[in-house]
Specification:
This protein is mainly alpha-helical and 126 residues long. The chain has one domain. It is built from five helices and two strands. Helix 1 runs antiparallel to helix 4 and helix 2 runs antiparallel to helix 5. The longest helix has 21 residues. It is globular. The chain starts with a helix and ends in a 29-residue tail after the last helix. GO terms for molecular function: DNA binding. InterPro entries: Timeless, TIMELESS_C.
């Protein structure tokens, strides 16, 4: 994954990488707190994240991290599978962190990544 992360450090992908990290960390935390794992959809709420999700390079990273593409016409979004443990999710997020851009770098990047939508069964509001 490290080589691919280097490829992804191109303009416009710093925000989506931080968003992905946040989604992975949130899923890990939820799984530890609830003691239950459910698939979690990755719903891109910004145009920047949506564009990244359509990028073949970004999709290759998602596959390397163990995420799965929509499996049928009824699914629109990539998912964090229920089989990924909190530890594996944190390692995946850390692999992006170590190769991501300097957080104090670009003025176009928001200071905090957008939150990953909760699994509808999580019972916790925004």
């Amino acid at each position: 994954g490290r080589t691919l992360c280097h490829l992804l450090l191109s303009p416009g992908l710093a925000g989506p990488l931080r968003w992905l990290q946040n989604c992975l960390r949130r899923a890990a935390q939820d799984r530890e707190e609830d003691g239950v794992s459910h698939p979690v959809p990755l719903v891109p709420l910004t145009e920047e994240n949506e564009d990244a999700m359509e990028s073949r390079r970004f999709q290759a990273l998602l596959r390397q991290l163990g995420l799965r593409p929509p499996s049928s016409e009824q699914e629109s979004f990539w998912r964090i599978p229920a089989s990924l443990t909190p530890q594996r999710l944190r390692r995946a997020a850390a692999s992006i962190t170590h190769h991501g851009p300097d957080p104090s770098g670009s003025p176009q990047d928001p200071p905090e990544p957008p939150e990953c939508p909760q699994d509808p069964g999580a019972g916790e509001g925004p």
